[in-house]
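Reviewer 2 asked us to include a model.

Predict the structure of this chain.
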Amino acid sequence: MSWLKKNLGTLVFNIAETVVIFLIGKALILPIEYVIMIMLTFMISRGFFGKALHFKTWYRCLIWSALIMLSLFVLLKIDLKLSVVFAIFSAFIMTGRSNINDMYLWNNNGETSKYQDIKDFIKYNEFDDKLIEFETKLKDRDNLEYLIYKYRFKENRTFSEISELLDLDSPRIVEHLDRVAFALRLYCGI
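Predicted model (structure tokens):
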């Protein structure tokens, strides 16, 4: 009973979302079996590739899902095989594994990171008194910003990894990281 109370909203949303997507397929006058096949291909592929990305608000999730499925259904009007391939591709895109910044051969076009000076300072001054003092004060003042600082600069994690660990969107992470970087540069004289 407690499981039902806890997950009732999610269950109702998922059913409503499925109905809306199904109605989009019907509005485009597509065969029901093809609509169901594309929906299942997308859902199963997304589950296979890893943890699915989710929006924090229900309406953004509904809009994004409807747009993806609409595009797959438009492709379905052209060719079934093409739609299946793009359903699998779209499912991969909707997981955290598709972030191109995480690819092994990514070189960022030879540009250095805007935080490169901080990375170098931390790398070569790991036991500097000012740096240790800054970290302590940051942890006491705002634990979230300390975790973002630690994950990005100490553990060298990517934005997608930080996003998964802290359940934050990348723009919010960058906003916190910019504040930390500004404070660190001032405090340690970088």
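Residues 113 and 119 are 9 Å apart (CA to CA). Residues 102-107 have pLDDT under 50 and may be disordered. We have added this to the supplementary material.
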